[in-house]
Amino acid sequence: MRIGDLAAAAGVTVKAVRYYESQGLLKPRRESNGYRAYEAEDVVIVREVKALLSLGLTAEQTYPFIECLRAGNDRADVCPASLTAYRIRIAEVDQRIAELTALRGRLTGLLTDAESWRTNQR
C-alpha cells in the first residue's frame, strides 16, 4: 500500500508516517518507481506508535514495542523491554506529579500569604 493509504488506515497524517519512518519506526520497501510500499503490519505499527505517543512516550521509547510486534507477538507490550519502557514512563509521570504537587504547594502558600496580607491591610 502507498503512504496515503497507510495514513488513512492508521488514522494519522502522511506527515506523521514520514516522521515515523525518519525515526526508524517504519521500514518501507521501495518500488521500482521509487514510491514507498507498506505492508498491513505497518498499519498496526503506526496505530501502536500513535497510541504510545499519546501517552507521552518519545519516538525512541516506542522502539521496544515495535520490536515486540515485529517479533510476532499479538501485543506490543508483552515483551520485557516494553514492560521496562512502561516502568520508565510511569517513573517520569511520578516525577512530574511530584514537581507539580510542590509547585501547587508553593502557589497555595503565596496565595494564603497574599490573602492574609490583604485582610490585615483593611
UniProtKB/TrEMBL annotation:
This is MerR family transcriptional regulator. The keyword Transcription regulation applies. It holds the Pfam family MerR_1. Residues 1-57 form the HTH merR-type domain. InterPro entries: DNA-bd_dom_put_sf (IPR009061), MerR-type_HTH_dom (IPR000551), MerR_fam (IPR047057). It comes from Kribbella albertanoniae. Keywords: DNA-binding, Transcription, Transcription regulation. GO terms for molecular function: DNA binding; DNA-binding transcription factor activity.
